[in-house]
Specification:
Blueprint (H helix, E strand, L loop, with lengths): L9 H5 L11 E5 L6 E2 L4 E2 L2 H15 L4 E3 L13 H16 L4 E5 L5 H11 L6 E5 L22 H14 L3 E6 L2 E4 L4 E2 L8 E2 L17 H21 L7 E3 L5 H9 L8 E6 L9 H12 L3 E6 L11 H4 L7 E2 L5 H14 L3 H13 L2
Parallel strand pairs: 1-4, 1-5, 5-6, 6-7, 11-12, 12-13, 13-14
Antiparallel strand pairs: 2-3, 7-8, 9-10
Helix pairs in contact: 3-6, 4-10, 7-8, 10-11
Length: 367
């Protein structure tokens, strides 16, 4: 079995008069992680060993209507960078432009929620059907060396089966599926370091989940693809050096917090995440207020979120509302991975601080 397949050309698909011309064959992307680890001690199987074994299991037990989308970025998800996120965006975009809209991406759990949120932002407004999944235990039984039998105690096969089913069904959007549940990708966060029910999310999702189109007419699909491809070279270039700093509040003084943020003034304009207490409260000091003003003047976007896993931030408390008078933006109910993903996408896809702030406001308004 080879990992690369022969596909129809862009022109034949994009010139078709109907969106029904798109292929319904699921494209499987393997990006590494615990899912493909094997042996004692556990180590990742090479992709060219693992994928033929995996595809044999899938075609025999789930569906033959699937093929591997060859991917050069296979690594532990804790090692993923903005450049890698952009790599997956480009990989999927290229195939989407060829008329494929059903995708499954297997990755690791460490940054699953971050990658899912980023791809949800990147494909907003399209009709792509993309399901991401991972596992807390490897697919193959490490006690059955060389037979490559599916571990009945692993969550991998169930997670993958659910992801393939969701992608094949074809509902537009980017979702994460795990432990028998699925959620819009932007709502997902990891809440347990080793339990099989390691993730949670919710279905009351705003933008980008509410931007997906059930069925794009061929003309609109072509326009979406062309508009996105126009930005692709800049996105790939900027992803090589973009940084989204995160400052975690602990009970230190406002002056200390100001010192941490001042160190970021020399960075090129970027997004900065400020993780406050409770509903987004942070210690006040005049020095900190002045620093926030300076960050704004330098083109940085500071977004305040919360250390709490649920509830989001609020401007109702004086202990937090003062910062919004100094150009800080509220994260609302966005999770930390979703805030990171949105800031990253804004800094890759939009070229000025003003346009990034405008887009943030537009996105929040879509909630």
């Amino acid at each position: 079995m080879t990992l690369s397949q022969t596909f129809s050309t862009n022109e034949k698909i994009l010139d078709s008069a109907s969106s029904n011309a798109t292929s319904n064959k699921v494209q499987l992307i393997y990006a590494g992680g615990t899912f493909g680890s094997y042996g004692r001690p556990l180590a990742a199987l090479p992709a060219d060993t693992f994928l033929p074994l995996l595809m044999d299991k899938i075609t025999q037990n789930i569906t033959p209507n699937i093929e591997v989308l060859e991917n050069s970025c296979v690594k532990d998800s804790s090692q993923l960078s903005p450049a890698d996120f952009s790599h997956f965006f480009q990989l999927i975009l290229n195939r989407y432009a060829q008329g494929y809209r059903h995708f499954v991406l297997i990755t690791g759990t460490d940054t699953l929620s971050y990658l899912g949120s980023f791809l949800a932002e990147a494909f907003a407004g399209s009709d792509i059907s993309l399901a991401l999944t991972a596992s807390m235990r490897p697919l193959f039984d490490a006690n059955d060396i060389h037979n490559y039998s599916i571990d009945p105690h692993s969550d991998a096969w169930g997670n993958l089966s659910e992801a393939i089913g969701l992608a094949a069904h074809g509902e537009s959007g980017v979702v994460v599926t795990f432990a028998g549940e699925s959620w819009p990708a932007q709502t997902v966060q990891k809440i347990h370091s080793h339990d099989l029910m390691a993730f949670t999310g919710h279905t009351r999702a705003g933008y980008p989940a509410n931007s997906y189109v059930k069925s794009l007419p061929m003309g609109r699909r072509k326009n979406w693809i062309e508009d996105t491809e126009t930005k692709l070279s800049d996105i790939m270039a900027h992803s090589q050096n973009v940084i989204i700093p995160t400052v975690y509040c602990v009970p230190n003084s406002g002056e200390w917090l100001s010192t941490q943020l001042t160190a970021l003034l020399d960075l090129p304009p970027t997004g900065i995440i400020l993780m406050g207490f409770g509903a987004g409260n942070i210690p006040y000091s005049e020095q900190l207020a002045n620093t926030l003003d300076k960050l704004y003047q330098h083109g940085h976007i500071v977004v305040c979120t919360t250390q709490c896993p649920y509830g989001g931030v609020s401007e109702a408390y004086a202990a937090g509302s003062w910062q919004y008078q100094h150009h800080v933006l509220s994260a609302g109910r966005l999770t930390l991975p979703a805030v990171y993903a949105r800031l990253l996408w804004l800094h890759l896809a939009f070229d000025t601080p003003a346009r990034r702030r405008q887009r943030w406001s537009y996105s929040v308004g879509k909630h």
